[in-house]
Amino acid sequence: MFVNTNLGVLNLAFPDVCFVPVLGVPTPMPFPNIALSFADIPAQFEVIVGGGLAENLVTVGALSNGDQPGAEGGVVSHLFMGPFRSILGSFKVFMGGIPCTHMLGLVGQNGLLPNMVGVSLTPAQVTVLVLS
After folding, report:
1. CA 62 to CA 30: how far, in whole Å?
2. Phi/psi at 37 (nearest 5 deg)?
3. What is the pLDDT of residue 5?
4. Confidence bin at 67 (pLDDT 50/70/90)
5. Nearest-angstrom CA–CA distance, 105 and 44
6. Reduced to 3 DSSP states, what percent helix, strand and coil does the chain have, rounded to the nearest 5?
7. Residue 6 to residue 77: CA distance in whole angstroms
């Protein structure tokens, strides 16, 4: 799979179940949760792939979108528009001393204690592949 960089990987998680006030009662409702790697806080500055900084398991995204109607936050994280981070990376390829992340890797979204686990769906670059 293609290595993730901070140039626009789209991460999607569904259903991101959040509490929505319905007649004053917090009711759990599902929402799609989308996170883009433009908002990532880089953990290493040595490896540049396709013009963007390569991401590893320590890279944290600043915010995820899509669950704003859930005004009382997620069922697990109690956040809305919370941070996101990759959960699973390569077992053999390291970027900055830490396993790199790649397309179709698992991503915990809407909180560092994730409200939902999603997947990196789109490549940010198409030149470097990680096959492990």
Report:
1. 22
2. -80, 0
3. 95
4. confident
5. 19
6. 0, 45, 55
7. 24
Measured in residues, the chain has a length of 132
Q: HSE (CB half, 13 Å, CA atoms) of 109?
A: 30
Model-level pTM greater than 0.85?
yes
- Please report where in the chains the tokens 């999607």 appear, as a residue: 12
Instruction: List b or e across 12-37, with b for residues whose CB sees 16 or more CB atoms inside 10 angstroms.
Output: bbeebbbbbeeeeeeeebebebbbbb
d(CA 72, CA 20): 6
Query: At residue 38, what are phi and psi to the nearest 5 degrees?
Result: -60, -30
pLDDT digit string, tens, across residues 81-127: 889 999 999 999 999 999 999 999 999 999 888 989 999 999 999 99
HEC letters along 47-94: CEECCEEECECCCEECCCECCCCCCCCECCCCCCCCCEEECCCCCCCE
What token pair was written down for 8?
């626009």
